[in-house]
Design goal:
By secondary structure, the chain is α/β, with parallel strands linked by helices. Helices cover about 40% and strands about 25% of the residues. A hairpin with a 7-residue loop joins β4 and β5. The longest helix is centred in the C-terminal third of the chain and has 25 residues, at about 335-355.
Length: about 350
């Protein structure tokens, strides 16, 4: 059943929801949470489809917030709320409310959404794209116990990771982190089988892929070893190599579907490691509503190291300094300055190369 309401209010939407449930013969509410989706018209269909698929595992009231930007000055002053209500077969296993906010109302979306939240139920806010830099600090984000974004959808995914680390609040998460859950599980299981001592690691994947960066940060944070980030043509994350004293552990996935696990002293094994759809990622995130401390630790560890590498001054070349002190030009400031200038230029180029290759 679908009900369209134009120039409506939150109280009228609530009344229409109650009446719609009675009309289809299901007056009882069996939903476990409220999922608020903040998106635009272009991405609303795909986001709602993923949410409906996820609702088969997590019955929920889905509230889609679409902010309609007005073109004229007069229409920007006029506030209007249009709503579309879906219950029954049109709304998965829960119920759906699509809100379209016009005019000044786009700046007060939280006031519209608040009366529509399920009482005594958790609230999850999801931005399929266009998430604010401070999730918890935004008006709608403050309503949720969990806040889901996707840095893969950002123009600058690596820069977005740095922003997420700066503004992180308990309850924030990222679908780029969810994408690597099978990789983390497989690597942890491989290290649990035998007492391998890892001395270094390499993460290989396509450029500008935040999942690769997050996996590298997680390995560096948990194993306390150097982690190298290398590039490949993809798709996505393609390989992880762990160097141990007994040999190399390799988890490689060249086709985005089937991976191979190679371990010292054991036969190679094929592992199902397919790239998952958004609905599967969303369903995984809705299984837990407590803060993800592992994500927080990996996110902040990586950004801190990235800043240190970018902000550190260029080191002086020891050989050039020794020549300047012992050579014929030790007392001549102009001759001593030339080698130092060349030495400073070299680290700067390395930092640029690191920045260019810093991607998933």
């Amino acid at each position: 059943m679908k009900i369209d309401l134009t120039e409506t209010t939150s109280s009228k939407i609530n009344a229409a929801l109650v009446q719609a449930r009675r009309d289809i013969g299901t007056p009882a509410i069996g939903m476990v949470l409220t999922l608020v989706i903040v998106t635009d018209e272009e991405n609303a269909y795909d986001a709602l489809k993923s949410a409906n698929d996820a609702s088969h595992e997590h019955p929920s009231r889905i509230i889609v917030v679409i902010k309609r930007v007005s073109r004229s000055a007069r229409s920007r002053r006029d506030a209007r709320l249009d709503a579309e209500i879906r219950v029954g077969a049109d709304a998965g296993t829960g119920e759906t409310v699509v809100l379209r906010l016009h005019g000044e109302l786009v700046h007060h979306a939280d006031s519209v959404v608040l009366p529509l939240l399920l009482p005594d139920a958790p609230v999850v806010v999801w931005w399929p794209e266009g998430a604010p830099s401070d999730l918890a600090g935004s008006a709608l984000g403050a309503l949720g116990q969990r806040r889901i974004s996707d840095t893969y959808a950002c123009e600058d995914p690596i820069g977005a990771l740095a922003e997420r680390a700066q503004t992180y609040a308990p309850g924030d998460t990222d679908l780029s982190w969810t994408r690597i859950t099978p990789w983390r599980s497989m690597l942890a299981a491989a290290l649990d089988q035998q007492a391998f001592e890892v001395v270094s690691a390499t993460v290989e994947g396509e450029d500008e892929n935040p999942s690769c960066e997050l996996l590298a940060m997680w390995l560096a944070d948990r194993l306390k070893v150097p982690v190298e980030r290398t590039l490949s043509s993809g798709p996505g994350l393609t390989a992880v190599r762990l160097e141990t004293k007994e040999g190399e552990i390799l988890l490689g996935r060249a086709d985005g579907s089937l991976a191979t696990l190679c371990m010292p002293g054991q036969p190679d094994r094929s592992v199902a490691l397919k790239r998952r759809e958004t609905a599967e990622l969303l369903a995984e995130e809705l299984r837990r509503l407590d803060p993800d401390n592992t994500y927080e630790s990996a996110l902040k560890f990586g950004v801190a190291k990235l800043r240190a590498a970018q902000d550190s001054p260029a080191p002086a070349a020891p050989a050039a300094a020794a020549q300047a002190a012992e050579g014929d030009g030790a007392g001549d400031g102009g001759e001593a300055a030339a080698p130092a200038g060349k030495a400073a230029a070299k680290p700067a180029s390395k930092a640029a190369a690191r920045k260019a290759s810093a991607k998933q």
